[in-house]
């Protein structure tokens, strides 16, 4: 797997328009499960990522009512083991958005997840990059509620001007992923418009 291009939807959209999205999170949080649920729209049994997986995926996102907008995403799913985390910075450089996957059941590692999330968003090159925090495994009975996830991850204290959205999800069945992508896409487009407006003022 890897380097695949889904032509199930929007075959006319040029791949060069794909948004650069990096999927991060601690090991065993469900990052690769998220990636391949988006890619194939089915559960794919995965093993811990030793390096990275990459997929170009074309998606149809609802805008309002019955209207739809087209988007192409180039996802980079990077391993979450502690020894691989220093490499995250290389993948987030020039990223349009970050998807940070958190295991809602593994409460003992929430502090560790918070530390890594804040560390990556506070890098100078990542200032203002939109972040979609995926609260995975919300289908399980002992998962932490969203409001407690938000508090435990200190999302309100993310890097300067970092837009974020916390999305309840179950990667195995795909629940919440479409909604999360729509929120991320909206944040990215809003940031681009703001950047263009600022550039015009400088001229």
Which parts are unreliable, with pLDDT below 50 for 5 consecutive residues or more?
A: 1-16
Q: What's the arrangement of strands in the largest beta sheet?
A: 1-3-4-2-5-6-7
CATH-level-2 architecture:
3-Layer(aba) Sandwich
What is the share of helical residues?
25-40%
Strand content: 15-25%
Report Rg: 16 Å
Describe the structure.
Keywords: Cell membrane, Cytoplasm, GTP-binding, Lipoprotein, Magnesium, Membrane, Metal-binding, Myristate, Nucleotide-binding, Nucleus. Its main location: membrane. Interacts with CYTH2. Interacts with KPNA2; the interaction is direct. Does not interact with ARL4A. It comes from Salmo salar (Atlantic salmon). This is ADP-ribosylation factor-like protein 4A. The N and C termini lie far apart (about 45 Å). The protein has 5 helices and 7 strands, in the order ββαββαβαβαβα. It is globular, with a radius of gyration of 16 Å. The chain has helices at about 30-40, 90, 110-120, 145-150, 175-200, and strands at about 5, 20-25, 50-60, 70-80, 95-105, 130-135, 165-170. The chain has a single domain (about 5-200), classed as Rossmann fold, CATH 3.40.50.300. Strands 1-3-4-2-5-6-7 form a 7-stranded mixed β-sheet, with helices on both faces. β5, α3 and β6 (about 130-135) form a beta-alpha-beta unit. It is an alpha/beta fold and about 200 residues long.
């Amino acid at each position: 797997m890897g380097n695949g291009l889904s032509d199930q939807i929007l075959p006319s959209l040029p791949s060069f328009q794909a948004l650069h999205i990096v999927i991060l999170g601690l090991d065993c949080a469900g990052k690769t499960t998220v990636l391949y649920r988006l890619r194939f729209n089915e559960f794919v049994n995965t093993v811990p990522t030793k390096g990275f997986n990459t997929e170009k995926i074309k998606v149809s996102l609802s805008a309002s009512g019955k209207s739809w907008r087209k988007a192409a995403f180039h996802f980079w799913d990077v391993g979450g083991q502690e020894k691989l985390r220093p490499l995250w910075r290389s993948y987030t450089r020039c990223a349009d958005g970050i998807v940070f996957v958190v295991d809602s059941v593994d409460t003992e590692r929430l502090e560790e997840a918070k530390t890594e999330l804040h560390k990556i968003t506070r890098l100078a090159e990542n200032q203002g990059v939109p972040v979609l925090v995926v609260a995975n495994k919300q289908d399980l009975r002992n998962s932490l509620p969203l409001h407690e996830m938000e508090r435990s991850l200190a999302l309100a204290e993310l890097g300067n001007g970092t837009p974020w959205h916390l999305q309840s999800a179950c990667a195995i069945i795909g629940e919440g992923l479409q909604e999360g992508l729509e929120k991320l896409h909206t944040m990215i487009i809003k940031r681009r418009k703001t950047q263009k407006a600022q550039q015009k003022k400088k001229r």
